[in-house]
Amino acid sequence: MKLLSVVIPCYNSQDYMRNCIESLLLDREDIELIIVNDGSVDRTAEIADHYAIKHPSKIKAIHQPNGGHGEAINTGLEHATGLYFKVVDSDDWVDTRAYLKILDTLNELIDRGKFIDLLISNFVYEKEGAKYKKVMKYTSIIPQDTIFAWEDTKPFRKGQYLMMHSLIYRTQLLRELRLSLPSHTFYVDNLYVYQPLTRVESMYYLNVDFYRYFIGRDDQSVNEKVMISRIDQQLKVNKMMIDYIDLETIQNERLQNYLFHQLEIVTTISSILLIRSREKENLKKKKELLAYIKERDKKLYRKLRYGFLGQLTNLPSWIGRRVSVGAYKISRRIFGFN
Fold first, then answer.
1. Contact assessment for residue 143 and residue 205, using Cβ atoms and an 8 Å cutoff
2. Strand partners, 8
């Protein structure tokens, strides 16, 4: 059994997947890279096979009909043999020193008989053309270099959140959860974070800038114009998060608060994108989203609608919507996201 399985979902990734793969290749046998070619029509399959043939003990190349990002992660999880599981998108990469530190830490914990559910590290927004690179770190809210539980955490600030890039899960936890992400759907990384956290009890945080999250391609799924064009998929994921669990059933208050925090962020993004589109149909969808939440859970609705972010994204009239968008733009500059 390997220590770590890294899944690399690839769709028409010929121009950048090599950089990703090379950053993850190490001269050690306790890692495996699972390259999932998700129905690409360029040279992705050829490149994946080349690496698998060249490094047969470290790399698997799996080819499947196009099913989307979530289906590629599902396939990777199905074939993973590592104790721990990581997803790295094919246009991103990792820092070698941080990578080695993470692997050494996991090995040290296992040698002590400690099989944590989740390892958290930092990620860096590698935004094309930006002089300042925002680092998402968690030093002010969770303990460093020690095993901790939700009781040991502090409240996350509005600009702090966990993303797929931050997380390495214990593989068996994902399998016991029966994690299955929807096919042909973008933005499933929100579900990948949200759903397993309900089962996570033991965690470890390393303050290293491991994951380099590239933002800048015009066709990238997190490009604002692309997100607006795919708003129905964003809303689908948002609703799946709402439906997944009744937060009031979560006994641990800190975990409950964090799950609400994550849901609040995703709902705010949905609302802002609907406003940004400036289309009457999307403003109607914004009202429908609130109605959906209210129908499912009135208490959750009140918290989302009348909290700070809910009030900010539901200001009346076109003037209110301009204020909402202005606040979003300021936040984007401060926090460095897309």
1. yes
2. 35
Contact at 8 Å (CB) between 64 and 37? yes
Closest CA to 260 of 313, 299, 203: 299
Q: State the DSSP H helix or E strand holding residue 48, giving kind and residue range, or none if neither.
A: helix 44-54
Q: Could you give the CA distance from residue 282 to residue 290 in angstroms, rounded to a whole number?
A: 13
How far is the C-alpha of 97 from the C-alpha of 192, rounded, in Å? Answer: 26
| pTM for the structure as a whole | 0.92
Rounded-to-integer distance, Cα 6 and Cα 304, Å: 35
Contacts of residue 315, defined as CB under 8 A and 6 or more positions apart, other chains included, come to 321, 323, 324
CA dihedral 260, 77, 38, 119 (to 10 degrees): 50
Containing 253, the helix (H) or strand (E) segment is helix 253-276
Helix (H) or strand (E) holding 71: helix 69-79
Question: In which band, very low, low, confident or very high, does the pLDDT at 335 lie, cut at 50, 70 and 90?
Answer: very low
CA distance 180 to 187: 14
